[in-house]
Every structure is written in C-alpha cells, then in structure tokens.
Amino acid sequence: MSLVDHECPANPVLKTYQCQALDAFERFLLGYRDHGAVQAYETLARERFGVGVPYRSPQALVADDVPCVCLRIPTGGGKTLIGGQAIRRVNDALLGVQHSLTLWLVPTEAIREQTLRALKLRGNLLHDSLVDELGRFSVLTIDEALGLQPGVLDTCNVIVVATMQSFKQEDTGRLGVYKQNGQLMANFEGVPASEVGNQSLVDVLRLRRPFVIVDEAHNQGTQLAFDTLARLSPCAVLELTATPDRSYQPSNVLFSVSAATLQAEDMINLPVELAAHGNWQVALREAMNCLAGLQIEADAERAATGEYIRPLMLLQAERRSEGQDTFTAERVKQILVEDFEVAADAVAISTGTLDELGTTDIADPACKLRYVITVDKLREGWDCPFAYVLMSFRASSTSTALEQILGRVLRMPRARRKQREALNKAYAFAVSQRIVEVAQSLRDGLVNAGFERQDAKDLIRALGSDSGQDDLLRQQDSVTVPLPQKDDQLELPDLSALPEATRKRFEKNLELSPETGSMTLRGQWTRNDQQALKEAFHSAQAAAAVEEAFAHLNAPGRQHIPTPSERGDSFAVPLLAWRQGDLLVDAGESPALEGAWSLRDVPAELKESEFPRELEAMQRTRLRIDEKGKVRSDPGEKLDVQMRLFVREPASEAGLLWWLENQLRDPNGNMDPAELAAWLSGALRYLQEHRGFTIDELAYRKFRLRQVLAAQLKAAKHGATAQGLLSLLGDEAHLSVGDDLQRVLSSGRYAWDWQYSGFTTLKRHFFPQIGNLKSEGEEFLCAEFIANDMAGVDCWVRNVERKPSSFSLPTSSDRFYPDFLIRMDHGGIIAAEYKGNHIATGDESKEKKRIGELWERRSAGRCAFAWVENQDWSSLKEAALRLAGATAKRVDG
Question: One GO term of the cellular component aspect (predicted)?
C-alpha cells in the first residue's frame, strides 16, 4: 500500500505518524504469533531504528511470553486516540475475534475521569472513532464491571477504565476486584474447575485474556505493577507514555515520535519563544503585549480561514510562603484586575485548592476568559485549546512543574497549521535576570513532556534577542552521542550494581534512548561518576566512546551559524506530476497507477506448498525450543485454545468467511467487497472439496489461512500496479516536473525520528538538525562527501522516509524516498539514492532507478538523479555536471 502524503488513507481521523505507530504495533502482534515476542520485537526494532535493540520482558510476564511493548508519544501527540485505535488491531491481528475485553489502566483518578469522558461522550474524537472502528462497545468503571455478565462480553467490545491502584496491592484480599463475587458466577459456566479461581472480577479478566493498555506507563514501573499485570493473564500489554522507563524495567519502545514529526504534522506549536526580565512589571507587560498581538493575528486568521481562535495566557504564580512577599495566585489576579485593568471575568484561578474554571467551555466564542492562573499544574483533564503564552513569576521552577503547564501551550488548536506564522509558535515569559537558567528549565520541561533533549535544545529561542543572546541560549550544556554497538547490537550500560546515590545522580545527568541509538550526557560529572559510567559498559570500545563523549561535553561550545531554514529560506523540490486537461496531481495518484485489476483473474486455489494439509506440518512453525532444550507450544496457539472457551457457536463456513472478509478488506476501497467475498468463498470451497479440509480445521488455522490469502492478494495487486507503472513510464507526454507541484521544505516542516549525533561536523545542511542519519556506515560517508567535499553545493537535506514533509516518487508497490536532496549554487536540484553493494541490484532497485531517471528527464534540465553505489561518488559529480551544463544552456539561450 502506497503512503499518501498528509493523511492516513485507511483512517482520515489519524495523522500519518499515528497510523504508522498502529501499523508497527499490528506488525509486532503478527510477528509475535509466528515467532514470539523477542524475535518479533527485535526484527521490527532493527527495521525501524536501524540498529539492534534487545527485547526486555518484565520478569513477571516471561513465563507466558506476554508481548509487552511501548509507543512513545510526547505531550500533544494523541496517546489516548492511539490507545483506542489499538483495540481493533489486537482483535484482528492477535485474537481473531470481533469482540474483546480491554483493561485501560491510568495513574490517577483525574486521568481516569478524563479517559472515561473521552470514551463515552458523543462528539469526542476518541468515542466517535471507536464507533467507526469497533461498532458496538461498552465502557465501564470498576464498580460497573463488578456486575459484568457474559452476554455483554460476548456481544460487544468491553473497555474497563481503572487506576492501577484498583489492582495493585501485595495483600490482594483487601481489594474488591480479587474477592469472590456472586454476581459474576455466570461467567464461569463451562469453564474447567482448575481455571475458575474464586470467581472474582480478576478471574473473569484472567479467563478472557484482556488487552491491557497502560497509560502514562512511566508512573507504573515497579515490580508490584508487573506482578499485578501477570495476575490478569493479559494477551498483550501496550504502554503509552511520553517518557518510557529507562532504569527499573526498560520499556520496549516499538515506535517513537519526535518533536519534529509532531510539528510537521501540525500537532504542536514550536519553537517556544522565550523572554526573561528581572522586573516583573516589564515581564508581565511584554507578555500581555504578546497576547494582544496574537489576538490581532487570530482575527486575521479568522477573516482568511473562518477558524476561531482566542489566544490565552497561562500564568504560573508562586506558592504562599510565611514571612515572604510572594506572587500568589490571588495576588496575581489582583494585579491583573486592578493594576492592568483586565476585566474580572477574563481571569480565573486554577490551583489545588481553588478552581474557578468549573465547566467553562474555552472554545465557545461567548467565553471571555483570557488569563488562567495556576501554581504547579492545571487541573488534569482540563482542555485548553487556545493557550499560547506562558508567564512565570517564579525565578526558578522544577522541570516537572513547568512540564505540566508548558505542555498546555504546545498544543496546536484543532491540529491544523495556521496561515499566520505567529500562531504556529508558543511563547514564554519569566521573571528572572538569568535567561539561560530559565531556558534550561524550559528545556527540562520539554524533556519531561517526552521530547529528546537533543531536540529540546533547538526548541527554545530568545524572543526579540540579538544574535549574541541567541548564541548564549545555545551554549552546550549537554551532548548527545551514539550508543556503542557490540556484535551489531546496541550495548547498554548495566546500572544495577551502582550505589543508590550514584544511580540517582545518573537519572538526572544521563538520558538513554535505545530507539534513537543515542545517549545524552548533561550537567557536571565528577571523575568518579565518569569512571562508574565507563565501567557500566562491558566493552573497551564502549568505554572509549564514553570518554570521547565527556570530552565533547566539557569542550567550549562552537559559535552557531544560522542555517538556511533558520534564516527563513525554503527548499522546493519539484514532484513528478501527471497532467490530463486541467487535472494536475502527483504521479502516484495518477489513474494509470490504479491498475485495472480484478479478483476474477486471481487464482483462489491454495496448493500444498502454500497451505500444508498435515496438521503436524502446520504446527512445526508454531513450536519453539526453550532455553532447556524442551519443545514448548507457541503462546499464540495457547491463546487460541483459551479464547475458544468462550465461543458460543460452533465453527461455520459463514462465520469464517465473514472473519476473512473483515481481515482482508481494502480500507482504501480499491477492492470490490462483493468480488472479495466471492473469491474467498471459492478459496474455502477449493480447500474443502479438493484438499479435504473440514471447516473446523480451517477455523482452527484461520490466522495462517489469512496470512496466505493476504500474500496472494498482495502479489496480484502488485502485478496490476506494476502494469500501471509501465503504462505511466511509457506515456511521458502526461508527465512533468516543474514549479506547478513541489515539495516545499521550510522551518517546522522537516520531520525525523532521530537526529544525527556523530562527532563529525556535516556542513551546509538546510536545517539545523540532520534526521535519521547514523554516525557511521556507507550512507554517512555519502553524507560526509556531500556536506564537506562536493563542489558547488549550496545546501542539502537528509530526506527521511515515510514522512509527509519528505520528497518521494511513486513505485509499483510503495513510494521511493531518495536519501539526499542537494541544491546547487545555481539552483539546480539533485536527488541522490545511496545503495550498498549488497543491495544495489534487484527488480526493486531497477524500478527506483528508472523512475528517478524519468524524473530527471521531465525536469528539462532543472533536476538530476544520482544512483550512488559502493562509495563511488562519480555519479554525484556527473549529476552536478549535467545540471551545470543545462543551466549554462538556459542562460546562453
């Protein structure tokens, strides 16, 4: 399936990165059924992050090989929506059922109430999206679940929302969920006596193998928490958090979202423009002037687009202190009303002891609220869509307190980029003489909100400052370096043997990020702590890498030279366009690529080699050998057997056919449902009449059957699309490459998963960050040549795969993202693809090369394509010469 820019084709509710996170989770579940959690995770992690990351299962879940992975989504990224959508993926990819049981665990009562509202309330995005995905579903509290009946569990998807504390107790007899409950007796009819337990709610959950979502998972990481999960016998555990556990039980991060990705997909306001003044009156007056200016911009935005925005200010007051004159919430409100003549109904206090917000609907145009005053955090769950300005009266503040408030001004209203650039940023003002300390606190707040520190360093900018002050904010107070590798896998430090005091210091000054292949060192390190960190790694190579990292941490910061994007420049790359009459579209959306294909032309007969008849042959792929050399049943098979306890009807051809139709339907609507149903019916009929399968056998093997049939459909569609591509390539008159259709890269429109963190300086990159580039290997060497040695380069971009902001070309099966985009001094563009010698051949590579050369031909000498192999830079030089020659001809002409 081709990636369509700017949207998730299967689900328009979701952003592209949200679809990709869910797709990664689904692929993990499918891999788990075939190979177990370790192999499934490590295979996908290597594919996703480009490096080997070990899977670390919580000890309490090891015996049953319960899959446990984490989606790392920073503040403002829509974790709750992703969690709800994940239920359908579990039903389809893991359980093979229409209705399942989900236990949604949250850390606090406030978040529990917020989640319940989002799930239950019509008109809420989460609720409405689940109606589309799941059909009928029921959302319950723990009290409501204590009366849960099998008729409900069998006929709809059930979601129980609770705090971890409802289940987490060493003495389980003290909690109602573990006590015998006569209301639940009907759930145990027909269940073997050995599985009944004491007929408690936990026993009902255990028998149904719930899908467990652990929201804000970093707040749950204790041994007791994982022991609690093990008692529930989950079919899978999905952690959703901005800040994964890195120390106690390191999270298995399957998908990680960067600040750049959220910004490029219009989810958050960045950068944060910062100003600090020692005089509180000056700081407050400038903050209010900023708010007034934003209102003017908002009025212009509404006139242009119709979107209503009323910018708000969040004010962080000080705590009351005996004997000291502090800016308490009440005093700040008095200052606003009496000294600055703000209307009383435009100001509200929201603290732990006083909440004047009530049920105020901020988005209502009739609402007059403009200023919200708090201390450490706003009421959890309060939606503040128009917060743009943060004003802090506190000269110093904990990063946690700042994160609670800063996260509110980062959210982009309605997740849609504004035409007025001022409305795409956030603003922070502070009462302090030390702007660098304030900037550091804000950066710490961003890290607590789930952003990598390497990203956070670039997201705080001095408001209206001269270049000297901006350079001051960029002083190197931390350094991010690649994690060492051993045997092609990341080497992570073992901190378990360190004294408790040392570990506490490390938690403050060391940030590990296996999914980005990097670690960040910050602050001051004693010689003893430096030595302790080196010894925590096992190889001499790792110790040397740590030594070099400390050398860079202690080195003076280099002067920052603004990049083209920071100077307001843009980098436009023409797309391959298809034109017919007045219609001009990306060639990937051309009717020629749709392919006229029909399932009537696809064979429905599955041969012995594709779908073995013997059960033993089928099961050989579902057995594994444990560490003691004993053969054990695959956990997927064990799960199937347990779930069949609650199948009230015998297997039927109609039921299996319905399940396969739902599993194999095309979410983009490119496959006729009636045609699919007829094709699947023919496949089942062939297996029964010619191969001798019974419907019970086919139902038992339905996951394998789905996998084989999906492969048949994919191959057929690829063949048809390949024919469409041949038609496209053969009709160049309809294709063009010019200014009419471009991918425009600019500040805030460059998404990546991780930043380059190597010690070698790579010059001339269009953006201050270089996305998804490792610090060694052949692609790095190619980047180094382009950046530092290639003649005539104005600037270049590391083009990141599968981002809506990236440049791509269509292929018969997907989209092709050249590794590098290069703008020459004369304005010509080179798209360069690097292939190592071991992967440079094959049909896929030939197709990419051909489409790249077509793109160059149709550009009329304005663009060139370079296919680079085996560290031979001659193709780059030749592409540059072709462009220079074409440019000279245009000038002479």
Answer: cytosol
Q: What is the largest CA-CA distance in the chain?
A: 92
Same domain, 349 and 219: no
pLDDT at 195 over 50: yes
pLDDT of residue 400 exceeding 60 = no
417 in any annotated domain? yes
Q: Identify the CA nearest to 346 among candidates 320, 379, 310.
A: 310
DSSP 788-852: II-TTEEEEEE--TT-TTS--EE-SSSEE--SEEEEETTS-EEEEEEE-TTTS-SHHHHHHHHHH
Enumerate residues 6+ apart whose C-beta is below 8 A from 325: none
Which range of residues forms the domain containing residue 673?
Answer: 583-732
Classify 864 as helix, strand or coil: strand
756 φ/ψ angles, rounded to the nearest 5 degrees: -60, 135
Residue 492 makes CB contacts below 8 A (sequence gap 6+) with 54, 250, 483, 512, 514
Q: What's the rounded Cα separation, in Å, for the pair 259 and 449? A: 10
CA dihedral for 170, 175, 179, 183, sign (positive or negative): negative
Residue 712 has pLDDT above 80, yes or no: yes
CA distance 34 to 407: 40
Q: How many CA atoms lie within 13 A of 871 on its CB side?
A: 6
Measured distance CA(636)–CA(639) in Å, rounded: 5
CB count in 10 Å sphere of residue 222? 14
Total structural domains in the chain?
4
Phi then psi for residue 94, to 5 deg, are -110, -50
* Helical packing angle, 635-643 and 16-35, nearest 10°: 100
Beta carbons within 8 Å of 672's beta carbon, 6+ residues apart: 599
The Cα 457–Cα 465 span in angstroms is 17
User: Could you tell me if 412 and 457 are in contact, meaning their C-beta atoms sit under 8 angstroms apart?
Assistant: no
Give the CATH number, domain containing residue 277. Answer: 3.40.50.300
| Lookup: tokens for 361 | 């609907």
Structure tokens at 312: 């708000």
Is 727 found in the same domain as 668?
A: yes
Residue in this structure with the two tokens 């056998």, named with its chain if needed: 697
End position of a domain, from candidates 207, 227, 257: 257
Mention every residue, 6+ apart, whose C-beta is less than 8 A from residue 6. 16, 804
State yes or no: cis peptide before 74, omega within 30 of 0.
Answer: no
